[in-house]
Amino acid sequence: MPTHKPNAKKETIRIFMLGGQDEDGKNMMCIEIDGDIYVIEAGIKFPDPKESLGIEYVIQDISYLIEHKDRVVGVFITHGHDDVVSALPYLLAEVPSHVYTCPLAARQIQKKNRQMKVKGAHIHTVKRHDIRKIGGRKVVFFPITHAYPGTFGVAILTSQGYIVYSGEFIEDYDDLSDNYRGSLSALSKLGTEGVFVLLQESKGADRPGHTSPNHRLAPYFSQILEQNDHRRVFVSVYLQSIYRMQEVIKTCIKYHRKMLFFTEEQQEMMENLKAIGYEVPEELIIDKKHFNNDLKDIVVIIAQQGPILFRTINNIINNEVKPFEFHEDDILCIASPIVPGAERVFSSMENDLYKEGGEMEILTSHTVSMHPSIEDLKMMLFLLRPKYYIPVKGQYRLLYANAQLAMDMGYNPNNILILDNGQVAQFENGRLVSCRMEMELQETPIDGNKDWDMAGVVLKDREILSTDGVIILAVGIDAKTKKIINGPDVQTRGLIYLRDAEYITKDVAKIMEDTITADVEKKKYDNMETRGHIRDKVTKYLLKQTKKRPMILPVIMEINSKK
Fold it and tell me: Which of 221, 289, 212 is nearest to 249 (CA)?
């Protein structure tokens, strides 16, 4: 255990999640030690397209961090995937902080901050065996193997022992480059020094065995290239799935196949990879300007984010992207898993592919994602031997499965905590003292506009329009006397079929007329306030008559009468 004075008062520790529990994505973990807040990860999640109504993605409710911004001592971004990093600019815009991350993700973050004009943040590059003093406490960054180069786990030293977040990891004992190689000795050292709490991800907690070697798609992609040396191949990869992209590139080099990187973002990513020591033979790269549809030995690598990836492929299949012409003998290889929120887009793309007569190979059907399976999770527990265990990241069934495997290893159920977002586990003097819900969190939808904080209002309006319709009431009144001189006129869309309910429009018009007259007589008329009175009365009437709450837009035009 870490050394400390026997009679010294131990720190108060609070651990809570602002996202990621019982959901896919939107990950954010907070560790509060005597008031100092350490934030781990700041990711987004993609919404269900049926419910998104134009929303691109969703981020956490960060109001607690905004309220206590002066106590945030550091933000740790373990790698560069969307569910870990893409909400960071929104956090930094409100809570300028010191950010600690790996070299490739640092470049990604700095670019996004420039695009969104985020100022005041300090980005620190972390090496995979670094030990730093952050907020006056020792923080250990230990290397792990994941689908992104430089990924690390985090251990924060407290008076009660280390608080460790495992990171997203797998155990792969093959010869890997330094950018991907994990370290069992670093984990064993932490276990020897003493781990108080371990937070460990749950995405593969129901999957038996180890993840490796079932995460590799290179053997399957090799078969495609070997058996189809005269056919064009299109490959889908998520932009931030660097390991997958490198597998595809390495296989193309092996079979001496020329490659075209489809997007400017990919080309920029390749430049960033070159900066950390990864290069591709220039003679195998074809510039889009030199592409022609007669080339047969080419592999077109398409890398984008989330559902956008499959929309782009769909456009290529339908010959809507110049200079590409999709042919019947072309092969489409899906090397990107269908993430939550992308299912419907993928299904539409697949349908159009078969209409065009192309061939599709879903490589990911043969592989599993690079997240720890049951034996990987047990290995981490075995080496670290924590006093308390908190499963994080994943649907509730996976959090439960993660907790169950710890119990199977002999851990006391009272020391295993499944927390909801906003629920705070508080520890004092080396033991859990409370585990209560303290925060009512509201998701923040982002529709791509600069005024991202207004997206929730916009989404609500879209939802009302899509389900209950709209009713517009217009009337003209004399600007001086406030007497009605034309109207009211009532128009509805998506609410009722007028021939069956003409009485409703007549009643609504009368409500508007009576409300204006009453406010004028009582000398309470004000254009904005009177419109509010009309909206309230019409809402109650329509709810009673139709059981709907449409969007109601009263318009009172004040007209200057002629002398």
Answer: 221
d(CA 273, CA 281): 13
**Mean pLDDT over residues 125-153, rounded?**
94
58-71 per-residue burial string, b: 16 or more CB within 10 A, e: under 16: bbbbbebbeeeeee
Top pLDDT among 435 and 307 is at 435
Q: How far apart are the C-alpha atoms of 377 and 371, rounded to whole Å?
A: 10
Peptide bond into 323 cis (omega under 30): yes
- What sign does the CA torsion over 390, 394, 395, 397 have? negative
pTM for this model (two decimals): 0.76
Task: Name 142's bridge partners.
Answer: 153
The owner of tokens 């280390």 is 162
Q: 31 Cβ partners below 8 Å, 6+ apart?
A: 13, 14, 15, 37, 38, 40, 156, 163
Give DSSP secondary structure letters for 209-270: S-STTTT--HHHHHHHHHH-TTS-EEEEEETT-HHHHHHHHHHHHHTT-EEEE-SHHHHHHH
d(CA 32, CA 437): 16
- Average pLDDT of span 364-378: 91
Cα–Cα distance measured from residue 471 to residue 138, given in angstroms and rounded to the nearest whole number = 61
Residues 6+ away with beta carbon under 8 Å from 367: 214, 215, 216, 217, 220
- The yes-or-no verdict on residue 235 having pLDDT over 60 is yes
Residue 224 makes CB contacts below 8 A (sequence gap 6+) with 233, 331, 333, 361, 363
Determine how β-strand 28-33 pairs with β-strand 57-59: unpaired
**pLDDT of 453 higher than 60:** no
Tell me how far apart the alpha carbons of residues 134 and 141 are, in angstroms, rounded to a whole number.
Answer: 12
Contact 424, 15 (CB under 8 A): yes
What would the pLDDT profile of 69-83 be if each residue is shown by its tens digit?
Answer: 999 999 999 999 989
Cα 204 from chain centre: 18
Is residue 52 pLDDT above 80, yes or no? no
SS3 116: coil
Q: Among 42-46, 68-72, 315-319, 467-471, whose mean pLDDT is lowest?
A: 467-471
The answer to whether 250 and 218 have CB atoms below 8 angstroms apart is: yes
Sheet with 258-261, edge to edge strand ranges: 258-261, 298-304, 233-238, 331-334, 359-362
With contact defined as beta carbons under 8 Å apart, do 128 and 141 qualify?
A: yes
18/66 Cα distance (integer angstroms): 13
> 21 and 419 in contact (C-beta within 8 Å)?
yes
In 393-489, where does DSSP find H-type helix? 396-408, 455-468
Least Cα distance to 101 among 51, 68, 141 occurs for 141
